[in-house]
Amino acid sequence: MPSTVAVLGLGAMGVPMAQAMAPTLTVRAFDPDPGRRRLAQEHGVSVHATAREAVAGAGVVLLAVRDASQVEQVLLASDHGVLEVLEHGAAVVLTSTVGIDAVRELDEAMARSGALLVDAPVSGGPVRAGDGDLVVLVAGSPQARERAGNVLSAIGSTVTVVGDRPGDGQALKTVNQLLCGVHIAAAAEALALARRLGLDLRLALDALTQGAAHSFMLQDRGERMVQLVEGADPEVLSTVGIFVKDLSIVAEASRSAAVPTPVASAAEHLFRIAARMGQDRADDSTVLNTLIDPSSR
């Protein structure tokens, strides 16, 4: 398996994934944002001036970008896309959540070029990414999965092979994001109600996370929601905009499958309201602000 991996995209997940791979692999990285490149360098990651420079000699390319349009730019753009300069048989590991159809179209384009696609959206957040402790939902041909095996094992403690067809990883990640978005919105509703009922929010959160109402999102985002009410700005670990995107993907998939998802639709509505309030780049826990008056904190 290749020992050199290029990481394209050094956002909240790209940098810690690069760090997690660095002890066992040669990591070459790029991001168009100079600030993100500097941050990666400060964390010991070798950074290059262009994406094409970063992929030179890499048998695997890991993409950690925001959406399908960025994937297309990185891989297929005529002036700087990397697909045409990849080694024959190189594997592209797509860790982003971009939707089922986008990945299947990309797989067709890559097959014509001789590159291999591993559809591998991840779940777990930046802290777990830095520990190599992500959940990775993998779909791709056996050849592609084998080619990328050392990268997948470096970033994930749980690597679930969903199937041989790229797009199936996105399908399972879509279901995952339905639950995550709903759980965050439900946590916001619960804490907004607790606050209006005059309860101590820290006491309420602690009690709720000890019983049947517990969820990861209640515990994790709930803590940041309490910080928000107390007047602090929560650290940005996953943005409102990410869930606007991901719940849009959920809505598209549900329409295509003719499965009603009214609860997910309600959660999407809250995140869209938060984005219109100017919180698109704020931590997703700030969706709480759609349910309380920020001036009354």
In short:
The protein has 297 residues and is an alpha/beta fold.
H-E order: EHEHEHEHEHEEHEHHEHHHHH
Low confidence ranges: none
**Estimated radius of gyration:** 20 Å
Structural class: alpha/beta
Strand content: 5-15%
Please name the fourth-level CATH homologous superfamily of the largest domain. NAD(P)-binding Rossmann-like Domain
Give the proportion of residues in helices.
40-55%
Strand order of the largest sheet: 3-2-1-4-5-6
CATH class of the largest domain: Alpha Beta
Number of helices in the DSSP assignment: 13
The profile of the biggest β sheet is: 6 strands, parallel
Shape: globular
How many E-type strands? Answer: 9
Head-to-tail CA distance between termini: 54 Å
The name CATH uses for the topology of the largest domain is Rossmann fold
CATH-derived architecture of the largest domain:
3-Layer(aba) Sandwich
Instruction: Let me know the average pLDDT.
Output: 96
